[in-house]
Each structure stands twice: as C-alpha cells, then as structure tokens.
C-alpha cells in the first residue's frame, strides 16, 4: 500500500532534521579541518586557476587532457563567477553540490520504494556518511560526479516528455563522461535499466540512440579541441593507456598505481618511454604520446597473462571496496595533524584511530551488503536481459547495475579507496534493501 510521505509529519521532521545535520557537518568540516590539494588534486586546482586567469585548459604552460576536463573546467568558471580562485571557494562549491545531491538522492529513494525503513536507513547513511562529509574538503571530482550521477538516475526514474528527457539525459551523461571518461559507456547501463523495466525493444533502442548521440554531441567540442592540440583522436583524455599499463604489467604486485620507472618494459618499450618523457624532463601528464605505446603493451600483456590480470583485478576490487576509509585522512584532512592545537600527540593518535575505526567499519558494512546484494541479483539481471517476460524493480536494477558497472571498470583499470565514492549511494541502497529483507524475514512487515 502506497504511503503518502508528504503528509507524514514524522517522516518530514526526521528527513528535514537529518538534512540540516548533514549540511551542518559538511560546513563544519571545511571550516575546521584543514586540507590542501596534493597529487592529482593539485593538478585540478592548477588547471582551474589557469581557466580563471583565461589561460585555457593548460598545465605548466602547455595544453593538457590527461584527466577528464569536466571538473577543473566547471571549477574554473565558478572561480570566474566568484572573482577568485581560493580553495575555500572550491570547498563551498562542493558543499552546495553536496546539498543538491542529498535532495536528488532523496527523490531517487522515494521514487523506487515507499518503505520508510529503507528510505530512512539509506538517507541517514548518505547524509551522515564520513566520506560524503569529508570530501567537501577535497579539490577533486568526487562530489561533482556524485551529483551528476544523481541527476542521471533521477532523469531515468522521473518521466516527462521523452523528446526533452532523453537528450537531457545524454547531456548529463556527456558532462559526467567529460569528468570520468569511462562513463562514455554509461548509455549501455541506461538502456539495460530501461529494458529490465519496460521490455520494449523499440523504446529501449530509441532511448539508447538518443542518449548516445546527445552524449557524443556534448563531448564533441572537447574531442575536436584535442584533435587540434594533439593531432589525433582523443575523445576525452589520453591517460587510459598510461593507467592501463601502469596497473597491468609484469612488475605490478598490488593492482594499484606504480611509478612508471618501476613498470616492466622491454628494451624497445623503455627506449620509447624515455624518449617521450625526455629521460625524466617531461611530465607524464603532458606526454600524450604515452597512450599510443602503452595501451597496446597492456593489451598484449593481458592476452599473454590472463590469470595474472585476474589476480590484479581482484586486488583492485579489494583496494576499492575493502580498504576502509584511509583516504579521508590522506586527502580530506592532510594538514589537520600539524595545524590542530587541541590534542597532544597521544590524544590525536587515539582520536584519529577511533574515527578511522568507525569510518572503516561503515565502509566494510556497506561494501559487504552492497556486493552481496549485487552478486545475488546478477542472475536476475542476466535472466531479465534475455527473457522478455521477466521484469525487475528499480530497487533491484538501479543498485545492482551501477555497482556491477563500476566494479567492472575498477577490475580492469585501477582501484583505490577514494574510487568507491560514486558507488557509495548505490552500496547504501543495496544495504538498506538487504536489511529490510532481513527485518521483514525476522519480524514480518510492519
């Protein structure tokens, strides 16, 4: 029986209170926990600052397309709008995006289920999740991509004139792909989700083609720019070959990033790498030619060592979903230890270890429930894709398809703790659905 949540005063007060608390904690974090951008985050900031100063999408004075251009470009225009390129401006932008993301996640929840237990459990998790709070302090793609994915899922769930909805969906997928290039494959996920519910070949084909073309048109200006700058076909970024081989070579034992000087390379390949990098005098982020030589090498190594590739893929999934929340301290509070004046060394270590224990535990629980939910439903998904009379609810399809999609990408390319960020909402959704099944199994429906 459908519950009218808009007339449920208790529900309104609870979700409103959780939203206010979640937003307060986000603001508190960026004002009280110091962090500076390092590594890739420093690159995002430099590019955004260059865009603010009308120097184009450049790094160290040269055109660049090593990372997706979406986040630094959007941030650069935010800087122009605000008249500065201060880190505080970027962090406040994250908080604003995070607030809109909470609203969108709530809209997703009430669309796919009317069970208050699931809605309250999942919404409380995403509003108060340490990762979702802490990453507002990081100059990175995470908060933006969570927002874009929420918009994309909402556009799939809330129907209106398809002549507008499908191109709009393709546009936002295009922006997401310009932020995370592997999302160029997302139209397949959208089509699969539509087919699992509607079972209409013609309508699913129309959705896929419209969304794909709209996405391609959104990406096209950047692709043209890359052709003009680098003289070859680069749809979004040129780091796929670099990342592919760095994480899949005979010397990689962890499935994670490693310095290019330490990777396995034949004499011929090493000479090519050294020539491209000018024997260490040129940044890998500017060396677009690396993709041309490293991608074939990665494919060849995988063909010759399929089981070693599988081992590295398993390590990547472990690093992404079962490494806890060490990334919070590394990226979202990396200046806190030096600048805080409240605790002694012993107190700091004890408090941080306690915070880490809680944060780790939450991630382990979400990942365990989420991945188990996905594994149990993969059979239903595959059956539903082939059988026209088998329909699946969004409560099954949305989390399962998204978790499986991101897991497949990380299995092949790269895994680390912060890469679980765009999947956390779907893991929480799967966990909420799992807990509800356990609850109703033990106590019956209430």
UniProtKB/TrEMBL annotation:
It is a multi-pass membrane protein. The chain crosses the membrane at residues 12-31, 93-112, 118-136, 143-160, 166-192, 204-224, 362-383, 395-413, 419-438. It is found in: Cell membrane. Coiled coil: none annotated. GO terms for cellular component: plasma membrane. Keywords: Cell membrane, Glycosyltransferase, Membrane, Transferase, Transmembrane, Transmembrane helix. GO terms for molecular function: pentosyltransferase activity. InterPro entries: LipidA_mod_glycosyltrf_83. The keyword Cell cycle does not apply. GO terms for biological process: lipopolysaccharide biosynthetic process. This is Uncharacterized protein. The lineage of its organism: Bacteria, Bacillati, Bacillota, Clostridia, Peptostreptococcales.
